[in-house]
TrEMBL record:
Family according to the record: Belongs to the peptidase C15 family.
Main location: cytoplasm
Organism placement in taxonomy: Eukaryota, Metazoa, Chordata, Craniata, Vertebrata
Catalytic activity: Release of an N-terminal pyroglutamyl group from a polypeptide, the second amino acid generally not being Pro
EC number(s) stated in the UniProt entry for this protein: 3.4.19.3
Known function: Removes 5-oxoproline from various penultimate amino acid residues except L-proline.
GO term, biological process aspect, one: proteolysis
Record keywords: Cytoplasm, Hydrolase, Protease, Thiol protease
Subunit structure: Monomer.
One CC-aspect GO term: cytosol
Gene3D superfamilies: Peptidase C15, pyroglutamyl peptidase I-like
Protein name according to UniProt: Pyroglutamyl-peptidase I
Organism name: Pelodiscus sinensis
Glycosyltransferase as UniProt keyword: no
Length: 202
């Protein structure tokens, strides 16, 4: 499983998404799961290079991207990525001329993971973190990365938005929430594909 967080940008000198991913790395996902973590720079062109390379190198069962949203107060599961509407400049002051991820690609790609099911299941675990669902990842690098990854993986990607650190959650809380979310995602994925993974005991 590959998991990415983003580097600093704008007012986010410390990006909560990367901190949360590092916390998750410490916690791990259990014995049978090989976990690779990446920090992605907030740059469109790097994302376009990095995502295909990541899929090629690891052929992961699942890729989860984590991003920070200054407006979020919950941990948010994004259902889909959007192809068009990218006008915000990245850390290199660059923006795609076409304002889209993949020219000629579908307008929107849904994750094959049932985010409603994941959200419901995580919400019953009694974590001290609220988890919600969204259909709009924001038309900036989060959305751009998610769409690029969904396009590469035929939908085998997920995106989780976290609020900035301390607003209201600590790094530990975010790490634990990610761990629970990804475990449920894997479970949902396995059942939806009709595979039974004996290692995954609840």
């Amino acid at each position: 499983i590959s998991i990415s967080g983003f580097g600093p940008f704008g007012e986010h000198a410390v990006n909560a998404s990367w901190i949360a991913v590092q916390e998750l790395k410490k916690l791990g996902l259990g014995e049978g799961v090989d976990l690779h973590v990446y920090e992605i720079p907030v740059e469109y062109q790097t994302v376009q290079r990095l995502i295909p390379a990541l899929w090629k190198e690891h052929c992961p069962q699942l890729v989860v991207h984590v991003g920070v949203s200054g407006m979020a107060t919950t941990v948010t599961l994004e259902k889909c990525g959007h192809n068009v509407g990218y006008k915000g400049l990245d850390n290199c002051r660059f923006c795609p001329g076409s304002q889209c991820c993949v020219e000629g690609g579908p307008e929107c790609i849904d994750s094959i993971i049932d985010m409603d099911a994941v959200c419901k299941r995580v919400s019953t675990l009694g974590l001290d973190v609220t988890v919600t669902i969204s259909k709009d990842a924001g038309r900036y690098l989060c959305d751009f990365t998610y769409y690029t990854s969904l396009y590469q993986s035929h939908g085998r990607s997920a995106f989780v938005h976290v609020p900035p650190l301390g607003k209201p959650y600590t790094a530990e809380q975010l790490g634990r929430a990610l761990q629970a979310i990804i475990e449920e995602m894997l479970d949902v994925l396995e059942h939806s594909e009709g595979k039974i993974n004996c290692r995954h005991e609840h």
